[in-house]
Write a structure and sequence with these properties.
Blueprint lengths: L1 H10 L11 H36 L9 H14 L6 H4 L1 H18 L2 H20 L2 H5 L1 H7 L3 E4 L16 E5 L4 E5 L7 E5 L6 E10 L2 E11 L5 E5 L11 E6 L2 E4 L8 E3 L5 E3 L6 H5 L1 H31 L17 H34 L5 H28 L14
Parallel strand pairs: 1-5, 2-5
Antiparallel strand pairs: 2-3, 3-9, 4-8, 5-6, 7-8, 10-11
Helix pairs in contact: 1-2, 2-5, 3-8, 5-6, 5-10, 6-10, 10-11, 10-12, 11-12
Length: 418
């Protein structure tokens, strides 16, 4: 492109200063420029393809039959591999979303447990550090990778239920005498509930209502060592699926964490106990909400990837499953039944439209992730719609397919059990 630009500038100069620039030379330079651009794009595609293969290889061993400990160890190994950096959510959002899509396709055979473990770690926990952490806290993500640490996201509380985030009773009070925050669960209803990866995590991003002196300043995020004294946990029990993933309740009884535990990119608590917002127009909890946007896009893509895989596996089965034909025709297979053929075609058309819509949401969100900007109301609505439509339509399509393939849907490897 630079060579072509120089040629065009030369054409605009007075004739006596011009280098001989013929139409043939401009065409040659243009062709060279396009060739260079294409080769650069091809190299990027090759790099992305190689990365996808490496990521699939690195996650090939996980199984829905794994214990919590085995699944967690596989996750630790994936973190230490550095295939997905914790900063890729900001720097390479395309890679972040592709990792989620690849894992979602495995959920057909292995269940959703590892996918949830993965997104809790990279999106909810350390994605929040990326969104509201200071430079030192973000730099510490290198140590998380090197040591293979695991994180969880402690937002949901027992009493809050589906109103997670709107109701936060866990408290954090600043103790200026010790330069520490003290975390407490005032009652069992305030215990963090259904926290994925909560049993095995080394760290947790904990949402707690912050009080500094006599000032109540609302929910803030703290990066907490799960080995801290005063933290109690319990198992939520056996689930219908995804039992390779641990889910825990977490309680806090006088848990003391250093002042540096507050994720304070947009606020500050001074050593003498003074609170201030440091980014005009942005409340810390609003930036934590950024993870809800990336999470919604990832969930929408996961639902669509799971659905694609179920349909591909089922259609492959239907195309080789012979069926009797009352007219005596030979070679008839299950996929030839008109209503099943129509379902495959209609579901594919719906999936194409939804994937295009969700892809547009990702494309619009990605630049904001790189700059730290907040989506406008139009994009926020589009992302919320994308999640609901993708999930609901995928559930509906898979349910319809299940009705049409009979006993095959009861087979353990068909994917319908998840």
């Amino acid at each position: 492109m630079a060579a072509l630009a120089r040629a065009v500038r030369a054409l605009s100069q007075p004739a006596r200063f011009r280098r001989a620039v013929t139409p043939q030379r401009v065409h040659a330079l243009s062709t060279l420029s396009r060739s260079h651009a294409l080769s650069t794009a091809a190299a990027a595609i090759d790099e992305d393809a190689e990365w996808s293969v490496a990521f699939k290889d690195a996650t090939d061993a996980f199984s829905g039959e794994d214990s919590h400990e085995t699944s967690a160890q596989r996750m630790r190994e994936l973190v230490k591999s550095g295939l997905l950096r914790h900063t890729d959510l900001r720097d390479r959002p395309d890679r972040f979303f592709e990792a989620h899509r690849l894992l979602a396709r495995r959920a057909v055979s292995e269940g959703p447990g590892f996918w949830i473990r993965f997104t809790v770690h990279y999106n909810l926990c350390y994605g929040t550090v990326l969104a509201v952490g200071n430079d030192d806290q973000i730099a510490s993500l290198d140590d998380v990778e090197a040591l293979g640490k695991l994180g969880c996201f402690a937002l949901t509380e027992k009493r809050a239920g589906v109103q997670s985030g709107l109701v936060v009773e866990t408290s954090a009070t600043f103790d200026a005498a010790t330069n520490e925050f003290v975390l407490n669960s005032p009652n069992q209803g305030a215990y963090k509930n259904w926290i994925s990866q909560g049993h095995v995590a080394d760290q947790a991003v904990v949402l707690a209502n912050l009080t500094v002196g006599s000032e109540h300043v609302g929910p803030h995020a703290f990066l907490v060592d799960m080995a801290s004294a005063g933290i109690s946990t319990g198992d939520m029990g056996i689930k219908t699926t995804g039992n390779d993933l641990d889910n825990a309740w977490i309680g806090f009884q006088g848990v003391r964490v250093p002042r540096s535990a507050l994720l304070d990119a947009h606020c500050d608590v001074s050593a003498d106990g003074t609170y201030a917002r440091t980014t005009e127009g942005i409340a810390p909890f609003e930036m934590i909400g950024q993870r809800l946007y990336t999470g919604r896009v990832a969930v929408a893509q996961a639902a669509l990837a799971f659905r694609r895989q179920v349909f591909e596996v089922t259609e492959a089965y239907a195309k080789q499953k012979p069926i009797p034909d009352v007219a005596g025709r030979k070679g008839r297979v299950l996929a030839d039944i008109p209503q099943l053929r129509a379902l495959f075609a209609d579901a594919a058309k719906r999936a194409d439209a939804l994937e295009a819509f969700v892809g547009t949401c990702e494309d619009r969100l990605a630049p904001l992730l790189k700059t730290g900007a907040v989506p406008d109301a139009d994009l926020a609505l589009a992302i919320a719609t994308a999640k609901v439509r993708a999930v609901e339509d995928s559930i509906d399509a898979c349910w319809q397919l299940k009705q049409e393939v009979g006993s095959y849907a009861l087979m353990g490897d068909s994917g319908f059990k998840h």
